[in-house]
Design goal:
Length: 406
C-alpha cells in the first residue's frame, strides 16, 4: 500500500504544476484536470473498479465484491485546484481512498456492501464561481436552470464545457449516490489544529457556515491628474475602506472575512475608476454570527460609499449553512485512534462532504495534519508519514462502516 500511495502521488505531482510558482492550476474541464480524471479512470481500471459518472462530470469507481449488497459506503474528494493551489487539497482524499481500497484488500477485509471512490468536479469554484458545484448539482442544491446560466470568466458556458469534455447526460440532479448510506471524505487539514494537538489525524465535528458576496461599487471615471481629490467619486476608495472595515469586523468577532478577487473598470493607471466589483468570502462559527458579520460589513461599505459619492450594491452569490457531521459516526471514527483517540475538530473550509451532509446523508470527514496550516497555496504540505497514517485511518473507518464486526 505504501508503495502504491507514493507511486500515485508521484504520478499526479507534475500534472498542472506551474514551473514558476510550484503551484497547481487544475481548473475543471481544462487540460490538467482532465489529465487527472483520465489518471483516476486508469487507477480504477487497474483495480477492477467499475467507473460510473453523471451529467455533471462527477465520478464513482465501485468495488462490488461478490455478494456485496445493500446501501453503499463512499469515500473520495476532488481533483481540481484553486488557481495556484497546493498538491494536497483534494487529491490527497482521492489518492488515500484508492490506497485504502488496496489496504483493505491486503488485509483481506472485504466489504459486505458496495464501496465507492468518488471524485467531485469543480469543488473549488475556481472556474464557474460556485464552490462544490459538482455535489451541489448532484443533490439539486444548484438547479438545472442555474447550471444553464453559469459561465466562466471567458464567457464559456458550463454546459458547453461539459460537452467539450465529453461528459454524457444532463447537468443537474443525479442518482449517482442515491443508494449510499454513508460518505467519508479525507482531506488535508487547512489550519494548525492538529499540530497544536500533536495528532496526525483528526475527525470533523462541524463545518462553519460560509458565503460568497459580490460587491459592486459604482463611481465616476475621471482624469487622475486634473480631478481634484475632493471632486472625485472613486469606487476604489470605497472598496479599500470596506476591505479594512471587513478585516476589523472579522478580527474583533473571531470570524473570517476575505476580499480575494477584484475587477476594476476601466483598469487604467491614469484614471479614477468608474466601477469596482469585488467578492467577499465570509465564514463564521454560527449562522447568526455569519449573518451579523455580513450585514455589518455591508452597512459599513454602504456608509463609506455614501461619504465618497459612490454607490454600493451587494449580491449574495452562494451561501452554505452550518453543517454538523453525524456525531455517532464521528465518535466511532475518533475511537479508531486507539489509546489516543483522534481529536474531533471543526473546519472553517467548505467541502463536498458538507453538501452531502446538508442533503441528509450520514457523512464524516478525516483530516491529515498540515505542519504549517497553509492551504490554497503552493506551500501547502503534509508529511508522507502522516498521509500514510491517514490512509490507515481511512481504511479502518471503511472497515468499521462496511464489514460487520465479529
Ligand atoms: Zn478541498
Amino acid at each position: 500500500m505504501t508503495a502504491d500511495f507514493e507511486q500515485m502521488w508521484r504520478d499526479l505531482a507534475p500534472v498542472g504544476r506551474s514551473a514558476a510558482s510550484g503551484g497547481y492550476f487544475r481548473q475543471p474541464f481544462a487540460s490538467a484536470e482532465r489529465e487527472c480524471e483520465t489518471w483516476f479512470r486508469e487507477q480504477a481500471a487497474a483495480r477492477g473498479l467499475a467507473v460510473e459518472g453523471d451529467g455533471n462530470g462527477n465520478l464513482v469507481a465501485w468495488w462490488r465484491p461478490e455478494g456485496a449488497s445493500g446501501p453503499a459506503v463512499v469515500t473520495g474528494s476532488h481533483l481540481d485546484s484553486v488557481l495556484d493551489g497546493g498538491a494536497y487539497d483534494g487529491p490527497l482524499g482521492v489518492v488515500s481512498a484508492l490506497a485504502a481500497v488496496d489496504l483493505l484488500r491486503e488485509r483481506g477485509d472485504e466489504p459486505t456492501v458496495p464501496l465507492g471512490v468518488a471524485v467531485f468536479v469543480e469543488e473549488e469554484g475556481s472556474r464557474f464561481g460556485i464552490a462544490c458545484l459538482g455535489s451541489r448539482l448532484m443533490t439539486g442544491v444548484t438547479t438545472r436552470e442555474q447550471a444553464a446560466e453559469l459561465r466562466d470568466r471567458d464567457g464559456v458556458r458550463l454546459l458547453d464545457a461539459l460537452e467539450a469534455a465529453g461528459v454524457e447526460g444532463e447537468a443537474g440532479p443525479s442518482d449517482l449516490l442515491d443508494d449510499v448510506s454513508c460518505f467519508v471524505e479525507l482531506h488535508v487539514e487547512q489550519g494548525r489544529d492538529l499540530v497544536d494537538r500533536d495528532a496526525a489525524v483528526g475527525v470533523a465535528s462541524a463545518m462553519w457556515p460560509h458565503g460568497r458576496y459580490r460587491y459592486d461599487f459604482t463611481g465616476q471615471a475621471n482624469h487622475a491628474g486634473t480631478t481634484r481629490m475632493e471632486d472625485r467619486r472613486d469606487p476604489m476608495l470605497s472598496y479599500a475602506m470596506t476591505v479594512l472595515a471587513a478585516n476589523k469586523q472579522a478580527r474583533e468577532s473571531g470570524q473570517r472575512a476575505t476580499f480575494g478577487r477584484i475587477d476594476v473598470r476601466p483598469n487604467g493607471t491614469n484614471a479614477v475608476p468608474s466601477a469596482v466589483t469585488a467578492w467577499l468570502d465570509a465564514r463564521a462559527e454560527s449562522t447568526e454570527a455569519l449573518e451579523s458579520l455580513v450585514a455589518e460589513i455591508e452597512r459599513l461599505g454602504t456608509e463609506r460609499a455614501g461619504r465618497d459619492g459612490t454607490s454600493l450594491r451587494v449580491t449574495t452569490e452562494a451561501a452554505s449553512p452550518q453543517v454538523d457531521f453525524d456525531p455517532d459516526t464521528a465518535r466511532r471514527l475518533a475511537a479508531l485512534g486507539g489509546d489516543r483517540p483522534w481529536p474531533v475538530i471543526p473546519t472553517m473550509a467548505g467541502h463536498d462532504a458538507g453538501i452531502l451532509a446538508a442533503a441528509g446523508r450520514r457523512t464524516a470527514m478525516l483530516f491529515v495534519r498540515n505542519p504549517t496550516g497553509v492551504s490554497h497555496s503552493p506551500d501547502e504540505h503534509a508529511e508522507t508519514a502522516d498521509c500514510l497514517l491517514g490512509v490507515e485511518a481511512l481504511a479502518d473507518a471503511l472497515t468499521a462502516l462496511t464489514v460487520p464486526g465479529p
